[in-house]
Amino acid sequence: MIGSGRAARDAALETDKIMMEAKTMRRHTKNLVALVGLIALPFMLACDDATGPEGPARGVPGGGGPQFAVNPATIEIGVGETVQLRARLNGEALDAGALEWYSSDPERVLVSADGLAEGLAIGSVAIIAEHGGLSATSTVTVVSRNRGWDDEEEEPEIER
Known about the structure:
Shape: elongated
Helix content: 25-40%
Strand content: 25-35%
Number of strands: 12
Radius of gyration: 29 Å
Order of helices and strands: HEEEEEEEEEEEE
Oligomer: single chain
Distance between the termini: 65 Å
Number of helices: 1
Largest sheet: 4 strands, mixed
Structural class: alpha+beta
């Protein structure tokens, strides 16, 4: 019995030691997070939506660079529906075939070489257009279009 009391005391001391180390690590982590925040703060304050530390951003309104955008910027379509995306550079329409078009998820929205986007599955996808080193994005959200029941169609039976 004497040995078991010593083992319990040793286990309790080890547990206390581990708890103290965990508290120390949490304190160091909080200090590190605060330090990173203080270091990053001047950089965040030096930037706004249109500029960065190096100066105006390209393609950002008010940024002084080329204005490149895809229209519509956001759109909602149904599964199986299509939308023609168009791009403008400095207010002038561009031939959609002269651009490179990409889908962030071609299994949800497929985009053709001329900017025709087709909804394949429900979800939101970024469609990216590139031209002359610039890129712009349109967000296409594919939804389920509930068209209801035609009077001539029979409503399916629901098992209860």
